[in-house]
Amino acid sequence: MKKFVYFFGNGIAEGFGLGKMLLGGKGAGLHEMANAGLPVPPGFTITTEVCSYYYKNNKSFPAGLEDEVLENLKKVEEAKGQKFGDPENPLLVSVRSGAPVSMPGMMDTILNLGLNDETVKGLSKMANERFAYDSYRRFLQMFGDVVLKIKKDEFDRELEEVKMSKAAKLSKDVKDIKDTDLDAEDWKEVVKRFKEVIKRHGKKVPEDPYEQLWMAIKAVFDSWMNPRAIEYRKIYKIPDDWGTACNVVAMVFGNLGDDSGTGVMFTRDPSTGEKVIFGEFLPNAQGEDIVAGIRTPMPLSKVKEWDPDIYEQLVDLANKLENYYKEMQDIEFTIERKKVWLLQTRKGKRTPKAEIKIAVDMAKEGLITKDEAVLRVDPYNLEKVLHPYIDERNAPEPLASGIPASPGAATGYVVFDPEEAHAWKEGGKKVILVRTETSPEDIKGMAAAEGILTSRGGKTSHAAVVARGMGKPAVVGAESLNINEKEGFFTVGNIKVSKGDVITIDGSSGKIYLGDVPKVMPELTGEVAEILNWADEFRKIGVRANADTPKDAEIARNFGAEGIGLARTEHMFFGEDRIWNFRTMIIFAESKGENYERAKEKIKSYQREDFKGILKAMDGLPVIIRLLDPPLHEFLPTEEEQIKEMAQKLGVEEKLIKTLVENTKEINPMLGHRGVRLAITFPDIYIMQTEAIAEATLELKKEGYNPKPKIMLPLVAFETEMEYMRKLIKETLQKYGLENEIEVGTMIELPRAALMADRIAKFADFFSYGTNDLTQTTLGFSRDDVGKFLYKYLENKLVPEDPFQSVDDGVVKLVEMGVKLGRSTNEKLEIGVCGEHGGDPKSIYKFYEAGVDYVSASPYRVPVARLAAAQASLKQLTGAAT
Amino acid sequence: MKKFVYFFGNGIAEGFGLGKMLLGGKGAGLHEMANAGLPVPPGFTITTEVCSYYYKNNKSFPAGLEDEVLENLKKVEEAKGQKFGDPENPLLVSVRSGAPVSMPGMMDTILNLGLNDETVKGLSKMANERFAYDSYRRFLQMFGDVVLKIKKDEFDRELEEVKMSKAAKLSKDVKDIKDTDLDAEDWKEVVKRFKEVIKRHGKKVPEDPYEQLWMAIKAVFDSWMNPRAIEYRKIYKIPDDWGTACNVVAMVFGNLGDDSGTGVMFTRDPSTGEKVIFGEFLPNAQGEDIVAGIRTPMPLSKVKEWDPDIYEQLVDLANKLENYYKEMQDIEFTIERKKVWLLQTRKGKRTPKAEIKIAVDMAKEGLITKDEAVLRVDPYNLEKVLHPYIDERNAPEPLASGIPASPGAATGYVVFDPEEAHAWKEGGKKVILVRTETSPEDIKGMAAAEGILTSRGGKTSHAAVVARGMGKPAVVGAESLNINEKEGFFTVGNIKVSKGDVITIDGSSGKIYLGDVPKVMPELTGEVAEILNWADEFRKIGVRANADTPKDAEIARNFGAEGIGLARTEHMFFGEDRIWNFRTMIIFAESKGENYERAKEKIKSYQREDFKGILKAMDGLPVIIRLLDPPLHEFLPTEEEQIKEMAQKLGVEEKLIKTLVENTKEINPMLGHRGVRLAITFPDIYIMQTEAIAEATLELKKEGYNPKPKIMLPLVAFETEMEYMRKLIKETLQKYGLENEIEVGTMIELPRAALMADRIAKFADFFSYGTNDLTQTTLGFSRDDVGKFLYKYLENKLVPEDPFQSVDDGVVKLVEMGVKLGRSTNEKLEIGVCGEHGGDPKSIYKFYEAGVDYVSASPYRVPVARLAAAQASLKQLTGAAT
User: Fold this and answer.
1) Exposure check for chain A: N or C terminus, fewer CB within 10 A?
2) What's the whole-model pTM score?
C-alpha cells in the first residue's frame, strides 16, 4: 500500500531524501533537519499526493489515510511524552500547509490544536492559566477563521471590547492596552466571547481533538485552492496540480515566559549578502506575533546579551544548516524554556545584490563550485542590479503604475512635448518625457529625456523598444494617467501633475512616484564582475550588443559585448538636417537631379561619420550594420502645416508631397514596403549606405584602426532578394576593393526566410534572427496592437508569457529549422539572434539549444545575456531542465 | 565528337526522335515529317546546343560546326539536284529560327538565300525573270533588315517610289498599284535601289552565298536575344537558356505561277474545335504574303475547285499528321508547280472552347485516352469558357486596361457611388461600379453592380477578392484612369467618361471598353460537362466552394461543388438593419443590458435564416461556417457625420462612440484584434453565432432536410485558443443536443498554427488552410500594400508569380508540415484549403502533393478546381512534372 504519511523527530526522519515535490518545502526541511539530528519537534507530513487525490476525488481522502495519521500521531505522543486530548498533559499540535515552493502567507495554518475546555486546564497546570487561555483563544480564532470561515474581524472586535473594559478598569486609553496587559481572567472572557461568536454563526469548534485535527487537515488542503493562492500561483507560474503537503507538528511554546521566545534568522544578510547571522527575536512570544508586528522584535545580535549560550547554539545551528544545504537559510526557531527548537528552514529570500554576493562568496569559501555559483544567480536579478533601482522599502506610496518596459529608475521634470524635452535638457534640466504614446518623430525628445512614461502601448510599443535600445527607464501603458499633452498636464484620479512637476519612474517595477525618490546605483564591479567573468568561462556562445551610437557601443563594450549584432541605421536619418536631406532624396527619387545628388552626398557623409564612431568604439570586433528598414512614410510629414513647410523648403508643389504622402501610406505598414523591399524599388539608398560603410572603413584603416563591419539586409523573404541585393552591394564594395572583406548577410525575420533558409544561405554570409518581427509574423500579432487582447490571453493562460518578452515555441521552431537548413547549404554560415529576446534569459536558453552562434542584446542587457548564455551551457551539461 | 547538325529530306531524318529541346519545334516537326515519308524539302537543323554555346562563348561557334554545315549543305544539294551558288541552277535556302516552344513572329527568318547578281540570272532561266528579281529583292530586304539591321521602312520607301512611277506610267493612283502590277524591269529597279539603300549605310550583302549563309545563321541565333523575344519569354516564362535551333531548308516556291501557291491548314477548326480541315490558300505567292495580309487568301475549301487532286492530297496529309501526332496540327505548305511540300507542322493554337471540344472528340474517336483528354485541357482555359467573355477578334480598341482580377465580362452604366449603384440597380439598370478602391462599406454597391472597376490595388485587393467571391467580373489597378468620385467622372488621357456612360469590362483580360461590347456566354454542357465528368473519375481529392449566400451555394453546387469549404459570416452583418444591430452589440458589449440583448437576438435570427438558406442549398453536403473574422473597427463609422448619426440612433454620447472608434483603430489591422481573438475578449459573438447555427440545423431537420454544418474558427495561432473556444462552442451546442454532431475545426492561416499543428490538431476536427492570410504572414506581404513593390519583383523575376495568385513555396512547406504534424496527433483530421489558391490549378497540384483532402474555390472556379485536381492525380500517376 502506498505510504501517505511520513514521521520525523527523535532522530527519525522517514521522509529524508524524498524531496519537496512530495513533502513540500517545509516538510522536506523538517525531515532533513531531523535526519541531521537537529532539534526539531516531532511531527509528521501528509504528502502532496494526498492533496492531489483530494482534488481529483471530489475532496475525499484515500483509503488508509486515517489509520496512518492516527498511527503517526501516536509516535508523536510517544516522542513528546504527551497524549492528544489528555486532560492532564495534553499534546498540542500545529497543522501547517507547505507547498513544493514557498507561497508565503498564501495558505492556512492552525496552531495549538488539541485544546478544548478540558485540555486547556491541563495546559494551565503544565504552564500557567494566563498562557493556557491565551493559547486557547488563539486556537479558537484560527480555527474559526480557517476552518469555520468566520471573519477574523469579528473575533478582533470582541478582543477590542475586552480591552476596552480593561482600559476602563485601568483608567487608560484603549490604545495603550497591550496583549500583555491582559490576565488569565481576561483571556477566559475572550475565550467565552469567541465561542459565542462561533455559536452566533451556528457553528462550533468540536471538543474532540481528533475531530479538530481532521477538520484542520481538510482546511489546509482546501486552502490550496483559495483565491489568493490561485492568484499567487498564476503570477509565479506554479502548476495548480502540484498540491500542498500538510505538516502536523507537536507544539513548542515561545510564550511560556521570559525564558522563552521565538525568532527568525538568516545565515547571511539578505540585503547585502554579507556573511553574518542576521535575524530578529521576540522573547515570550509565538511566531505570529512577529509576523503580526504587534511587538517590535530585537535584532538577533541582542540575543547574545539575552543568553550568550543560546546565541552560541543558534549560530552553530545556522552554520550547520547552511553547510548542509550549501545555501543561505531562512530559519524559524522557538525557544521553549531555554531549549532551542527549529521549526522550519528554507532557502532565504535575498535582494538581487545579495544573491550575487552570496553565490560568489560561497564559491570562494569552497562551499559550492564556480559553475554552481553561476547557475545560482537569476539573470533577471542581475539585470536589476545593473540599473539604478528604487529600494521599495524606502519608497513612498506610488502615484500610479504601468507596464515596466525598460528597467532602471529616473527622476526629472515632467515634459509633454519632445521639442521642449530637448530644450529643457539643453538648459541643463533633467526631464521625464510623458506622452500618450511615442512615434519616431519623438526620438530627439526621447534621447533628451531621463526616462519615458506613456499611457498607452505594451512592452514592445515604440516607446518601450526605443527606450530599451537607449538603455533608458520607461514605464508604458500606465492607463490610469489621463494625459492632456496640449495643455501640459496629466491627472491620476484627483491628483493633477503639470509640466515642470518632478516625478520618478521605475522601469523595473512599473511604478510612478511624485517627487524625487532615492535610487540605488548599479555597478559592474566586485562580485557582479566576478560572477560575469566566471560566466564567460562556461559560456559557449557569443554575446553582442544592439547599439546604434558610439556611446551605446562603448557602454556595451564595457559591459562585455563581443561586437555589435545589430546597428540600426534609421535613427541616423532623423536629426534636424538629416531628415531634410533624406526628404529631399525621397522627393526626387524618381527625377533625380542636382538637389537629389547633393542631399544623398550629405546623408552619406553623416552616415560615414556615424559608422566611423561605432566602428571605432568596437575596434577589432565585428559590427553588423543593418541597412535602412522602416517604410518611407515614417520620414514624411503628415500634418498640413508640415507639408506646407516641406514644400516651401524643398521648392516643390504641395500637391507633389501630398501625393507622395498618400502613395506611401499603408494599411499594414509592418507588412509593407520596407526593408530590402525599399532597396528593390529604390536601390540608391542601400548603395549610398554601402558606400558610407566602405568609406568609413577605409578612413579608419588609414588612422590605424581595425574596423570589422558587416552589412545586413532587413526583411528578406526570398532567396532572390538576397541574390539580387548581394550582387549590388558587392559591386559597390568592389569600387573600394572591400568586396572580399565585408560580409553580406541577412536578418531572418519572416517565416519564409526561416522555412527556405537553405536557399537563402547560398547568398548570405550570416543570418541574424530578428525575433521581434518574426514573432509578429509567426503569431500574426502586431506589437503595436497586441495590447488590445494580450492581457486576456495572459489572464486566461492562453500564452505562458508575453511572446515579445520571452520567445514563443513556434518562433523557436523556425529558429531551429533555419539553423539546420541554413547550415545545410552553407557550412560557414554564422547565425545569431538580435531581437529583443536576445537579452531574455529564458529565450537565450532556447536559442542556445537551437544552435545559434551568438545572441545580441541591448547594451544594459549584455551582462544578463552573458550570464544566461553561460547558464544555458551549464544546464545542457548537467542535463537540468530550464 | 558531338553532332551539331542533323539532316532531313529524301526519306532520311537524322534527328528523328531527338525532340524539341534539341531541334526546336519547327526542326523536330520537319524531321518527323521526313521520317514519315511526307513531302518535306531537304534541309538540316543546327541544334539549340549551338545557340547555348554561342551565348556562353562570347558569340562564337563550336569547333567543327562549319564542316558539319558544309557537309549537310552538300546533302541538300544532292537531294535537290542543285548547287549552292551555281549560276546556272542555284540552290536557294531558307534560314529559319525554331525554339523548343513556338514564339510566333518573335525571331528572324531569311528566305531565298543564295541569290546574288549571278545566281539571279540562273533563277531567271529556271523560272522567269520577273520571279527571279522579285525573289532577289525579297532576299535583299530580309537580309538588310535581319542581318544588316537596316530598317525595313527604308526599303519600303524605295518600293513605294517605284510604284509611284509605275502609277504615273499607268495613269493610276499609287494605292491601286499592286505587287502583281510590277514587271521584271520594275523589280530590277527595286533591286538596284535596295542595293543603294544598303550601300548608303556603308554595308553590303556579300555576293558569296556561303558568306551569306554564315551571316544569316549568326543573325538567327542573335535574334534569340532581341528585346521582343526576351519580353515574350518573360511573359510566357520560357527560360533564356533554352536557345533556338536554326533550320536551313531548300527553298520551294509558291510564286512560280498560277500552278503554285502557299497556305496554312488546321486539322480541326481552331475556333470551334469541329473536325473539319480549316485553312487558307493563296495561289502564286510566298508564305510572307499571307502573313503580311497584302492579298486576301481563299478559304482552304476553295482549293477543291482550284485543284481537286491537290485538295485530296492536302486532306490526306492533314489526317496523316493528326494521326501521327494525335493532336490538332497547324501546317504550313507550299505548292510548287502542282507539287505539295510541307514546310512546318506544329500543335495548332485554338480557342479555349475548341481545346475542350477537341480533347473530348479525340478521346471519343479513340485517338487518345480519356485521361489524356483530361490532361490536355488547360484549367486556365476552362476558367475562360465558364465566364462570359469577349471575343477580342470582334471587339473594338480598348479604352484602357488594368489588372484582370475576376474573370468574365460585364457591361453597364458607370456609377461611382455604391449607394447610387444600389439605387440604379433597384431601378432596373445594370451598372459598373467604378471606385479608386473599395472598402467593406461598399459591399452593397458591389453586390448591386455587374462588375467592378478600380484604379488602385492588385489581384488581391478588397475589390478583387470580393468580386471573385461574388463571381463578378472585376478589373482593378487600372492606373491610367483618373477617377473623380465626387464629381462623378473619370478620364483616360483626353477621354472623359461620366456617370451614366456605358462601358464594358473584361475581367479575364483586364480590358476596358467604351460602350456595350458583345460577349460570349458560358455553359456547363456538352464537351465542358463531359470533360469534367471524366475529370471526376480521376480526381482523388474533394472540391468544395467558398460561398457566403444561398445563391452562391446553388451556383457552386451546379458547378459540382461537394460542399462548402468556407462560408464567411461577416458579410451577413453589413445589411442596413444588421449593421445597426451589430453596432448596438459592440457599443454595449461591456455594459450589456436590454438594448444589447435585443440587438443580439435580432442578429441571431438574421443569421439563423442565412444559415438555413446555405444549408438548404447544400443539403446533405458539409458546410463549413467560419465564425466572425474581421476586426470590430470595420463595422464602426469613421466620419464625423456618421458618428453623430450613430450616437443619435443608439441614444449614446458621441464621445463614447469616438472613444470606441479610437480604441479599435489599429496600426496593422491584419495582425490585430480579429478572428478568434475577438471571441477571446468578447465570447458572446461566437456563442450567438453557434446558437444560430444550431437553431438553423434543428429547424431544417424538422423540415426534413439533412443539414451538415461544421464550425470553423479563424486566425488561431495557439492550441490554447482552440482548446478554450472549442469548449465554449461545444457547451453551447450541448444546449441543443448537437455537441456530438457538429464538428469544430480551425483555419490554419498563421505560420504558428502550421508549425504547431500537432498541438492544435488535438482540439480540432478539421483544418482548413487559409492561404491568403498565410501568404501574408509567411512572406510578410500585406495584400493591401503589396502593389507598391510587387511589380518590381515580377519585373526582376524575384518571384515567379504573384504569390497571392499561385501559392509560394514557403507557404507550401507550411502546408506540408501542418498536414504531417496535424495527422500525427489526430488520425481523423480532415484537411482542406480555402484560400484563393484553392481555385488556382498550379497551386492545387502542390496542395495535392502536400496531402490535403480537398480544395475549396469560389463558385465559378469549382469546375476549374475539379479539372486541376484530376490533373494533379493523373500527373502524379504518370510521374510527369507540373
Assistant:
1) N
2) 0.79
